[in-house]
Specification:
Blueprint lengths: L1 H46 L3 E4 L10 H7 L4 E16 L2 E10 L17 E3 L9 E5 H7 L9 E7 L5 E2 L2 E8 L3 H4 L2 E5 H8 L5 E6 L5 H7 L4 E3 L1 H4 L1 H39 L1 H9 L4 H37 L19 H23 L11
Parallel strand pairs: 3-9, 5-8
Antiparallel strand pairs: 1-10, 1-11, 2-3, 2-6, 2-10, 4-8, 5-9, 6-7, 6-8
Length: 378
Amino acid sequence: MVISRRLSGTVTRSAAAGIMVGTAAMMVVLSAFNGLENLIRQNYNIVHPHVSILPLDGTGLAWDEALDALLAHPDIADFEPVLEQQALLKHGEQEALVTLVAVQRSFVTPHAGTDRWTDSLLTANPDHWGSRSALVGRGVAMKMGINSHGLGSIVQAMWPESNQDMSRPALQVDGIFFAHPQVDEHVVLIPLASLQQWTGHELSQVKVWLKSGADMEAVRLAARDYLCKEPKDWERTLFNVLKSERLVTITILAFIVLLASLGLYAATSLMALERKRETATLVAMGMPLTQVKTAYTWGGLWMSILGGGFGLLMGRAIIAGQSTFGWLSLGQGYIVDAYPVAWSWTFAWLTWGFVVMVGTLLAWMAAQRIRPQTELLR
């Protein structure tokens, strides 16, 4: 009897410890995925605005009363009209395919609370934004052989027109900006009025930045006559890969937690064997067998609740330590020093609920095998 009690106690504690460690591990991994996703979102907030408004039919975006009314939405903090044109850029013997992004002067001036491509701008004349000024990305400047000493150089942009002629405007490089490799490698900023005059095209899109705490769904509803794209829509492939990796990892961890919870089945079964005389006595005294089984199920439920709860506390402590002290360092060459993590109470409660559900189910399955042995009372 003593050995049996010791064995059941050891199995019970081991089961609770397994649930605790499994829950903590699941929360740590989920927090790591959340941190990585948040870092990527922040990184691409430089590339894309909060919302890009484009025409539904893929043609030009007309600036009319409907667009004016949309841009007056109370959740919109700032906006910039944009016209884009693919072109071949030449500087001496150097050539590169680029995207001419035509913007207003306000786009290339610093704005508090919004990420602009020209927040890091190298220029010899910051007040100059003439009709033929060009601000080139660092990658474009390298392809053109232009550095800080080459500011003021003349480059030629070429693109075909609808009448089979070629547009060949000359542009003066008045600055080099550093934003993001995805932008720096192919973007050249020029004045909007100039490109509209050269091409006669309507706008390509309007870049929109929202106020803090803005209701994205309300903005989307107001822009239902337009195509609205968020950063995650522009980088759909990347975010789909992240979601797939998270789903696969969650599935593996859920299976591990399930294996750890199998100890509850063994613990409940051993507890029933250990107390088979007490069980027989209760049944003989008139207690329904279903009530006896429920009592054993409740035991497994409480072990799941406590194991999962302590697992959440352990996971929260690990994540807080990583956020504060950066225990896991990424080393040199990364945009952050320590591995990014972000705690989510939504995932925490879902994980805890899954652990409790699995533990309760296993305890219930073990309790259903209980059979009162009344012959032990003779």
